[in-house]
Write a structure and sequence with these properties.
heterodimer, A: mainly beta, 6-stranded mixed sheet, globular, B: mainly beta, 7-stranded mixed sheet, 4-stranded antiparallel sheet, about 55% strand
Chain lengths: ~110, ~110
């Protein structure tokens, strides 16, 4: 099956810093989504981005499908950005999740 | 609030028992997905339904079953529960398969 690798596994930032999270996947996909799991366990969809670039406020994402990777950019990080960021991929609706990047933003 | 509701929020039960988790998708969404999140396995896809029909199966145990009803709500049945079934169970929904999935708040199951 498709393998999904996320890096880095852990990231500690000072408030206001920028960061880039990476997701590599092992096979062609036509479904790629980024999620944020907050400290209360809620999973929030950030982007549906099987290819191309999207932006939403301080967050943006780029997927290069031909090279099998996706990047999530967080700019001017805030303490509320803390949590785990998951990349999930698939060829249909069923998503395969990476292990996530745990982000801690310090005030 | 994603618009996906799950009940109950928490469930504590004993080994060998059977439980039913319920999910109501967002209005208009025809696809429902079930996922399990545990410390050792991470987030795993269990099963997908589309407009009442099973569409895809993942790592779902034979002791588990699910269905989607005509009103599009879905239920996940877990039987002969074992300690290792303790996990957070999420339901998600989308309009179609290749679209944004919206997750419910989850049901936290503890098997003692």
């Amino acid at each position: 099956g498709i393998q999904v690798e996320q890096s880095p596994p852990d990231l500690i930032l000072q408030e206001g810093a920028n960061s880039t999270l990476r997701c590599n996947f092992s096979d062609s996909v036509n479904n790629l989504q980024w999620f944020h799991q907050n400290p209360w366990g809620q999973l929030i969809n950030l982007f549906y981005i099987p290819s191309g670039t999207k932006q939403n406020g301080r967050l943006s994402a780029t997927t290069v499908a031909t090279e099998r990777y996706s990047l999530l950019y967080i700019s001017s990080s805030q303490t509320t950005d803390s949590g785990v960021y998951f990349c999930a991929v698939g060829s249909q609706g069923n998503l395969i999740f990476g292990k996530g990047t745990k982000l801690s933003v310090k005030p | 609030d994603s618009g996906v509701t799950q009940t109950p929020k928490h469930l504590i039960t004993a080994t060998g028992q059977r439980v039913t988790l319920r999910c109501s998708p967002r209005s208009g969404d025809l696809s429902v997905y079930w996922y399990q999140q545990s410390l050792d396995q991470g987030l795993q896809f269990l099963i997908q339904y589309y407009n009442g029909e099973e569409r895809a199966k993942g790592n779902i145990l034979e002791r588990f079953s699910a269905q989607q009803f005509p009103d599009l709500h879905s239920e996940l049945n877990l039987s002969s529960l074992e300690l290792g079934d303790s996990a957070l169970y999420f339901c998600a929904s989308s309009v179609r398969a290749l679209e944004t999935q919206y997750f419910g708040p989850g049901t936290r199951l503890l098997v003692l």
